[in-house]
Write a structure and sequence with these properties.
The chain is an alpha/beta fold and 463 residues long. The chain folds into three domains: 83 residues, Winged helix-like DNA-binding domain superfamily/Winged helix DNA-binding domain (Arc Repressor Mutant, subunit A); 133 residues, Aspartate Aminotransferase, domain 1 (Alpha-Beta Complex); 226 residues, Type I PLP-dependent aspartate aminotransferase-like (Major domain) (Aspartate Aminotransferase, domain 2, 3-Layer(aba) Sandwich), CATH 3.40.640. 44% of the residues lie in helices and 15% in strands. It is built from 16 helices and 17 strands. The strands form four sheets. The chain has a seven-stranded mixed β-sheet with strand order 7-13-12-11-10-8-9, with helices on both faces. Helix 11 links the parallel strand 10 and strand 11. It is globular. The two termini are 40 Å apart.
Amino acid sequence: MSPLDLVGRLGRWSAGRGPLYVLLAARLRRMIDDGDLRPGDTLPPDRRLAAALAVGRTTVVAAYDLLSQEGRIVRRQGSGTTVAPAATIGGESVETANPLFLHLLEPPDDVILLTCASPNAMPDVVTAAYGRVLSAQDGMGYYPAGHPVLRRALAERYTRRGLPTSPEQILVTAGAQQALSLLARLLLTPGDRVLAETPTYPGALEVFRESAAVFRSVPHTDADEFVRALKERPALAYLIPTHHNPTGDVLPALLRRRVAEAAVGAGVPVIDDEALADLGTADVPPLAAFGRDDLLLTTGSLSKIIWGGLRIGWVRAAEPVVMRLARLKAVQDLGGEVFSQLAAAELVAGLELHRERRVAELRERHDRLCAELKRLLPSWRFRPAEGGQTVWVELPHGDGLSFAQLAMRHGVAILPGGALDVTGGSTACLRIPFLAPPEILAEAVRRLAAAWDAYGVSTPMAV
């Protein structure tokens, strides 16, 4: 593709706000994701594209580097820059970049899906909750900030956890993913820096990339570095301190206080993602317990503790922040579905009993997965998870992406570590959830072991 051809297809790429390299990367990213640029397409050399766009070469280099880190393009010395190969399912090419969303959009046949970590069956408590509320009569049914009954139930639960909360501090959303999207729309402009751990939840990374943010990454295990990075005053920070995705780790209360105080001192909003907070026995407060509600923003969800099909999430924040988010949300949907919210209020009221059963079930499945991994794949390295729903595995050689492609051919879909790492690192890692019944987990590990045997034959051992 000539530089002039690409310039013509880019359109008014520089019309937005933010650094030019971020705007250029955002436009190219959209063209790749929409299929306007196909896998294998060759992009112009950076010097020639810079001349055609009338920008400095560093603008194009920085844009290409961003897309390379995301895995959307491939840059090789002497071979130029090309659009990365598409992932494949059953031999068919697909355009979605992240396997997490790819397998939700097009579930493969006869494959054990271990890419999306969410309960795989609706529990009876959901049916019972709907049965109790379906006869409710409820006015017009439009509640952009959420149904008052659910907002009150969530506020009362936070208060019981030691964080006094009013219903006006709760915004109900269509799952935690929408909560993240609304916060990104409210707080970010193109080119803003987002502080995030590596690895972390891939859905959040996609939200921030959609906002054309630039990442400042910190290793998940380095809380001291996270505190130092907050003092650099990024536009937003994102953290999963309770049952971290993907490791299951829990940030101790003392370190939570340090993070909260650093954020407040620097005036940096921090998203405390509590979607997995109930999936374990940790009894630690949200970050907001140590600081200001206008900066320490808590998100949560019922999709992990109850069921993914119950699209109920929320944001807990200061009332002015909730009102601004509600105005954004009202434009999108005028408010969530009423009966789901009423059923969710019933579930929240009795959540502790369900949580106790759910955590016991998850620990049994966690232990079975760990035992099977140790038995059939003893060279794989991992630590048992404190909570949550996934184990983070490091391969002794090779890379997660190529192994995941081979594992798919052996009938099991897993998420390679690079999908959870903004730096393009964690390539030797895999995320494996332990949500499936024990017999399914055992079969999945058996298939992974067969794939690993085949992979070892075709992949050179690390020296």
